[in-house]
Amino acid sequence: MNADTSPRELDAAWGNVHPVHCKNCRAGFLIPANAGAPVCPNCLAARLEPLPALEADAPPELVIPFSVSDATLDANLERWRRDIPFRSPSLNVSALRANLKRFFIPMYLADASAFGTWHAQMGFDYLVASSEERFDGSGWVTQRLNETRVRWEPRAGELTRKYENVSAPALEQHARMMLALGASNWREPPFDTSRSIRFSADALNGAIVRVPDIAPNAAWQFARAQIERVAARECETASGAQHHEQFSLRAAYGEPHWTLLLLPMSVTHYIGDDGKFIPVRVNGQSGFVSGIKRASMQRARNWTIVIALVALLAFFLTALLGIAGALNDAFVIPALLVLLATFFLCLAAPAPLIAAWQFNRQNAEK
Ligand SMILES: [Zn+2]
After folding, report:
1. Percent of the chain, pLDDT > 90?
2. What residues contact residue 335 under an 8 Å CB cut-off, 6+ apart?
3. How, if at all, do strands 208-210 and 243-253 pair?
4. What is the 3-state composition of the chain as percent helix, strand, coil, each rounded to the nearest 5?
5. What is the mean pLDDT of the chain?
6. Which of 40, 84, 178, 319 could form a disulfide with 22 if both were Cys (CB 3.0 to 4.6 A apart)?
């Protein structure tokens, strides 16, 4: 529990919400008073059940509102599902849209003071003028070139500074979630935090909030690494350098103050052959869509059966034409053509099953 926030203050900070949890995946949430018992937006496999007390250590401070337009959302869902062969009937944009549930995932924000010394190799760009002799077909020409090189120099200094709103993971699954929401590097959340607003109960707009499952103490090492990255860039700028290497900071830190930043996320699902929900996740700000892509083996099998039935019919037709061909030569060529068609249909029959199996293997959860 944060030293400067009592449990009662924490409750008041959140407004009228109730703590609940999922017995299946153990994720904890805060839900609005009138939300009933919604399905767990984390695993989609159980309903959320009430908890006696709130298990969060930090009050909410900032919220990034949901801001994807319906048109962008539809287009992104359509693009995401388009390359899935033999799609389950539930894998269409209107069903995905209808099942969409909004919730917020937390990230810690730390305010901390740092006092210490740093040293690093700072790199300074400089221009070198050189010339290059080049044969242009009729004679040699001299071409002047300006080349940028980097001069490295050791630098050191002192640092006394307060860092505010340094972000750090609040969930064990944080890295995986950031990648699922469109990050190329999990350390950089795929959200424009400059568009965040102050937390208020209204800002949640009835959405569920996931509560942290990492304690602030455990998140501190990430916040400190983030502070070191920011400090390295600041020292580089202060030195008038353009590059830095081997930055090291020996610092003491004041007791950090922890709050939460809430990131918007939606989850929807389609239904697999086994009847289980397969989640599809959407970044509530950028509209980035991700999820496991699975072809329906049932649909592929139906196609295989249809092709096999047509092959069987073609086989009977071949037999009939063969008998007719024995009586009249005019039927021999058609009989051979239908035989050839039968042969290709037999080859094609297992293709849907093989294609679906291969697609699912390539897109299996890593
Ligand atoms: Zn769950």
Report:
1. 66
2. 318, 321, 322, 324, 325
3. unpaired
4. 35, 35, 30
5. 90
6. 40
Expressed in angstroms and rounded, the spacing between residue 279 Cα and the centre of ligand 1 is 12
> What's the pLDDT score for residue 300?
93
Rounded to whole angstroms, how far apart are CA atoms 317 and 299? Answer: 27
How many angstroms is it from 179 CA to the middle of ligand 1? 20
CA distance linking residue 266 with residue 286, whole number of Å:
11
- Ligand 1: centre distance to CA 104 (Å): 15
For β-strands 243-253 and 197-198, DSSP reports them as unpaired
Instruction: Give dist(CA 6, CA 217) in Å, integer.
Output: 17
In the reported structure, the alpha carbon of residue 94 is separated from the centroid of ligand 1 by a whole-number distance in angstroms of 24
**Spatial CA neighbour of 103 closest among 293, 287, 281, 291:** 281
DSSP state of 47: B
Question: How far apart (Å, rounded) are the C-alpha atoms in residues 306 and 325?
Answer: 28
With contact defined as beta carbons under 8 Å apart, do 113 and 325 qualify?
Answer: no
**Rounded distance between C-alpha atoms, residue 270 and residue 254, angstroms:** 48
Beta strands in the chain (DSSP E): 17-21, 28-32, 49-50, 60-63, 101-135, 140-169, 197-198, 208-210, 243-253, 257-271, 277-283, 289-291
- Rounded distance from Cα 233 to ligand 1 centre (Å): 40
- 0.85 surpassed by pTM: no
SS3 130: strand
Task: Give the β-pairing of 49-50 and 140-169.
Answer: unpaired
pLDDT of residue 1: 41
Q: Are strands 208-210 and 101-135 parallel, antiparallel or unpaired?
A: parallel
Q: What is d(CA 353, CA 297) in angstroms, rounded to the nearest whole number?
A: 7
Q: Using alpha carbons, select from 159, 60, 66, 65 the residue that is nearest to residue 112.
A: 159
